[in-house]
Design brief:
This protein is an alpha+beta fold. It has helices at residues 3-26, 34-50, 90-104, 147-150, 182-194, 203-211, 216-221, 244-253, 268-281, 299-305, 366-372, 438-450, 461-469, 484-488, 495-502, and strands at 74-76, 86-87, 111-117, 120-127, 130-136, 142-144, 171-179, 225-235, 263-265, 289-296, 315-319, 323-336, 341-353, 356-362, 379-384, 391-395, 420-422, 430-432. It is globular, with a radius of gyration of 27 Å. Bound molecules: zinc ion (ZN).
C-alpha cells in the first residue's frame, strides 16, 4: 500500500471513531459495542505506530499526553467568567423578573431554565475547529491552563464535528461544567479505597481533584464528563446566534455535549413551576444539582440588560433549600483529631435525607451540644446542605419521654486513655494532650500525606493505620526511613506498591 492509501485509511478510521464518539457521548445513542469500538481504536493505534508521521493532534489516539505538568500556567479569559447572583425563593425570582422588566419595558421575554450542576466551571476554546485551550474558571478573570487534562474527557471533541448546517467558526469558545456522575463517583471511591488511596468527600471534590492532576494519565482514568451551558468568545461573520436554544443546538451540531433537562419558559410562572419540579425530583438526575439556572433566551435582550461588576443581569441562580429529616440520636461519641481536639459526633437512627441515608451528624463542639440542648435519645431535625456532613438543627422537645440522657465530656481520650484538657484560650475546645496518641498520629499522617506538596503516592488511610498499629511509624520522620520489608509486612500491600511508596 502506498503512503497515500495508508493516509486515507487512517483518516477513514478517525472519522468513524469520531462518529461513534459523537453517537455515544453527545447523543447517547451508541451503534456499536465497546468491544467493536476498541477494535477500531486498536487498528488506528497500530497504523499510527507504524507511520508516526501521519499522527495529527486531533487524532482520537492523542487524548492522553505523556507529558506531566510541573505547574499550570495562568491564562487570561477572553471574556470574564462571571458568577451568578443567587436567589432562594419564588419571591426573589419574581423580583428579578421585575428588575428586568424595568429595563426591557413591554418586550416579550422568554427564559431558559436548566439544572445547576454541582461541578467545576471550565472554558474550552476551538481555533479553526481544533481544540487549543481548556482552562479553569479561577477568579473569573484568570484561570489555569488545563488543556492536557481537558483533552482526556471524551465528551469534549478534540476537533469540532463537521456540520451540514453550520460552518465551523474561526473562534468558538464554550463554557460549561466538568463533573462526575453520582454512580461513577461511588465506583471511583471504591476503587481508590481498594488501592489504599485517599477517597473524595463528594462528586464535586472528585471532579475538582481530577481535573487538576499534574499527570494527564491519572485524569484520563477518572470518569469525568462535560456539559456546555454558556458561550465564550465566538468569532465568525457567518454564524448568527440569536438565542440560547440556538447556541445549544449549534454546540450539539459541532459535537459538544450540552446541558440536559432544560426548558424554554414563556413566562415567570412557568419558570417557577419548572424550578419546583426539579426541587422535588433532584435525586432522579444522575449527577448532583444544587439548584436551577434561569437565563434570558434572547441574546439581543441579554445585550440590553448587560452585566454588573460581578454577574450578568440576564441570568440568576435559584438555590434549592437545604434538605431536612427527622430522626433519633442513638448515641453521642467523640472523635480525636490530628491536633488532639476532641469533637462530638452523633450516631443517628439511619434516615433518608435528600436521597441518601445518613447515620451520623456532626455536633462541631461541646458548646453546640449545650446550645441545642441535645441529649442522647432525643428526636432531632437533621439537615444536609450541599456537600457538608449533616448537622443537627433542632431538638423536638415534645417528643421527649424522660429517658433521654445528658452527654458528658469524657475525662480520658477514647483512643489512648490519655488526659483530656479544656483549652484556656478557646473555651469550647477539649484536647487530648498525649503526644504519642495513636489517633492523632494517624490523622496527622493522613493530613500530611494528603497535602499536595508532599505527593506521597500510595500513602492512604488504611496504610497509615496499619503503619501506626504495627509501630512502624511513630512520628513523621519515620515515613522517610521506611524500608520495603516494613511495608511488605502490611496486609494488602503488594510488592510493586511498596516500591512506589519508597521511590
Ligand atoms: Zn489520645
Amino acid at each position: 500500500m502506498s503512503l497515500e492509501e495508508i493516509k486515507k485509511q487512517i483518516e477513514k478510521l478517525r472519522k468513524e471513531i469520531k462518529r461513534h464518539d459523537y453517537l455515544y457521548y453527545v447523543l447517547n445513542q451508541p451503534e456499536i459495542s465497546d468491544y467493536e469500538y476498541d477494535q477500531l481504536m486498536k487498528k488506528l493505534q497500530d497504523l499510527e505506530k507504524k507511520y508516526p508521521q501521519l499522527i495529527t493532534p486531533d487524532s482520537p489516539t492523542q487524548r492522553v499526553s505523556g507529558e506531566v505538568a510541573k505547574e499550570f500556567k495562568s491564562v487570561k479569559h477572553t471574556t470574564p467568567m462571571l458568577s451568578l447572583e443567587n436567589t432562594y425563593s419564588s419571591e426573589e425570582i419574581i423580583d428579578w423578573e421585575e428588575r428586568i422588566r424595568k429595563i426591557l419595558g413591554e418586550q416579550k421575554c422568554e427564559f431558559v431554565v436548566e439544572p445547576k450542576i454541582d461541578g467545576v466551571s471550565c472554558t474550552i476554546l476551538y481555533k479553526n475547529g481544533l481544540l487549543v485551550l481548556g482552562a479553569t474558571r479561577g477568579d473569573g478573570e484568570t484561570g489555569e491552563d488545563i488543556t492536557l487534562n481537558i483533552k482526556t474527557i471524551h465528551s469534549i471533541p478534540l476537533s469540532l464535528r463537521e456540520s451540514s448546517k453550520y460552518q465551523i467558526p474561526s473562534t468558538f469558545e464554550v463554557r460549561g461544567e466538568v463533573y462526575i456522575d453520582k454512580k461513577d463517583f461511588e465506583k471511583l471511591n471504591k476503587k481508590l479505597q481498594d488501592n489504599n488511596e485517599i477517597t473524595f468527600a463528594n462528586p464535586r471534590n472528585a471532579a475538582a481533584g481530577s481535573i487538576r492532576q499534574k499527570d494527564p494519565k491519572v485524569t484520563a482514568e477518572r470518569p469525568l464528563k462535560f456539559f456546555a451551558h454558556s458561550t465564550g468568545l465566538i468569532e465568525d461573520k457567518n454564524l448568527k446566534i440569536e438565542n440560547h436554544l440556538k447556541f445549544l443546538e449549534i454546540c450539539k451540531e459541532f459535537g459538544i455535549r450540552t446541558i440536559e433537562n432544560f426548558k424554554l419558559c414563556k413566562n415567570i410562572e412557568e419558570v417557577i413551576d419548572y424550578c419546583k419540579k426539579w426541587q422535588e425530583e433532584r435525586d432522579k438526575i444522575e449527577y448532583d444539582i444544587d439548584g436551577m439556572v434561569i437565563k434570558v433566551n434572547s441574546f439581543r435582550q441579554r445585550e440590553i440588560l448587560g452585566t454588573t461588576m460581578k454577574s450578568p443581569r440576564w441570568a440568576i441562580a435559584y438555590k434549592f433549600p437545604a434538605q431536612q429529616a427527622t430522626t433519633k440520636i442513638k448515641n453521642i461519641r467523640v472523635q480525636v483529631g490530628r491536633t488532639g481536639i476532641i469533637t462530638p459526633v452523633a450516631d443517628l437512627e439511619p434516615v433518608k435525607c435528600g436521597g441518601v441515608t445518613i447515620s451520623h451528624a456532626t455536633l462541631h463542639n461541646f458548646d453546640e451540644i449545650k446550645r441545642l440542648g441535645v441529649k442522647i435519645g432525643d428526636t432531632v431535625i437533621v439537615e444536609r446542605a450541599g456537600e457538608v456532613i449533616p448537622k443537627i438543627v433542632k431538638v423536638i422537645e415534645s417528643k421527649r419521654t424522660g429517658n433521654e440522657k445528658n452527654f458528658k465530656v469524657p475525662e480520658k481520650c477514647p483512643e489512648c486513655g490519655g488526659e483530656i484538657v479544656k483549652e484556656k484560650e478557646e473555651e469550647v475546645a477539649y484536647r487530648c494532650i498525649n503526644p504519642s496518641c495513636p489517633a492523632q498520629l494517624i490523622r496527622g499522617l493522613i493530613h500530611f500525606a494528603k497535602r499536595e506538596a508532599m505527593d506521597i503516592e500510595g500513602l492512604g488511610e488504611a496504610v497509615v493505620q496499619q503503619l501506626v498499629e504495627k509501630k512502624l511509624v511513630q512520628d513523621f520522620a519515620d515515613i522517610y526511613s521506611l524500608k520495603k520489608e516494613d511495608l511488605l509486612q502490611l496486609e494488602l500491600f503488594k510488592d510493586k506498591k511498596a516500591q512506589n511508596l519508597l521511590d
